[in-house]
Amino acid sequence: MSFTPDIRLFSCHYTSQQGCANEGKELRELGFPENIRLTRVPCTGKLEISTMLKAFEDGADAVYVVGCPVDSCHNVKGSQRAAKRVTAVCEMLQELDVEPERVRMYHLDRGLHPEFVDAGKEMNQDIEKIGPSPF
Amino acid sequence: MIVAERKPLAEILDMVKDCTKILVLACRGCVTVCSAGGEREAEILASLIRLGMKKNGRSCEVIEGSLVRQCDREYVDAIDQWQGQYDAIVSTACGVGVNFIANLRPSDNVFPALNTTFFGGSAEQGIWSEQCAGCGDCVLHLTGGLCPVARCAKSLMNGPCGGSVDGRCEIDPDVECVWQMIYDRMGRLDRQQEMAKPAPIRDWSTAGHGGPRKQVREDLTVS
Ligand code: SF4
Ligand code: SF4
Question: Are B148 and B75 in the same domain?
């Protein structure tokens, strides 16, 4: 069954800055999936576990987070904290007997790189394969 | 503080499987400090219960609330504010809090969201360790402030068992032998000679072996 997943992306201000320029026009031109809804946060370290869970409650099929590289986070340890919280959500999904791949962390350099688009495409393809959220 | 950790979600979901309205009740005391059952954790748990119930095909309304503490009558009475909005309370307090709700609210269903683990402290962020077992007859004045009841695997009173190796406990090399620590510390404090005196046989009745313990402070009670 093919379906268009509802994917929520939380990205830090710095990593997504250029991607958001011109209302995401450049992102779209690069083939960034349109079904991914981007929420910018000042720092991914500020992202709460409950916010990611809420996204699932609101119908997301997957949630992913893009923050700075581990060793060069603008806020020093923000993206490391985010990665820990993503892992916690991953474990919670497993407790609920739900595919842990539905939540993921990417550490990417600042600016609009092909990797940012690739991450979105990868997430989209994987979730298309896994199927709709069981919630 | 009292240290606790969340129970496996499947266990909690099984407790509430027949409920249609749940109040997840946080405690802003010890369990907030040990990040097990404060408002943040209650919010997460409420979300997980909603997701779990939905996945299991059950509809359920889950609200969140919090009390300053769940181990004092005056705060527990504040549960009245949610009257009619729940058919069960899932408490994220320690076992004391759950007992207090059960004591004071005879017709409310209350379930524990946490396993209460020990009295401990956090020397490093995210890591807690047991320090006291609440034995009711403290001997820390004899042991340089380090507790042999809680921190010796055998709760020995007169020195190490003989199984420790390089200052590590024989139950697990990751555990320090508290008697080695006591010996070293008493040496640093120039008090090692005090350790030559045998500790008297303990009366463990204060440690809960004589039934539930109770404490009355006449100067504080007003009838
Ligand atoms: S109910 Fe338990 S966790 Fe809450 S303040 Fe009292 S002792 Fe601490
Ligand atoms: S001797 Fe008893 S009261 Fe004192 S720290 Fe150890 S367990 Fe706690």
Answer: no
CATH number of A7-130: 3.40.50
Residue B185 and residue B113 share a domain: no
Q: pLDDT (tens digit, 0 to 9) for every residue of chain A, 135 residues total?
A: 579 999 999 998 877 776 676 677 888 888 999 999 999 999 999 999 999 999 999 999 999 999 999 888 888 898 999 999 999 999 999 999 999 999 999 999 887 788 999 999 999 999 999 999 999
Interface contact flag, B9 A96, Cβ < 8 Å: yes
Of A48, A49, A96, the CB nearest to B51: A96
pTM: 0.93
Atom number, ligand 1, closest to the C-alpha of residue B67:
4
- Measure the CA–CA gap between B113 and B90, rounded to whole angstroms: 6
Would you say the ipTM is above 0.85? yes
Tell me the residue range of the domain where B84 lies: 2-118
Q: Return the bridge partners of B210, or none.
A: none
Pairing of strands B2-6, B114-124: antiparallel
Instruction: Judge if B40 and B6 occupy the same domain.
Output: yes
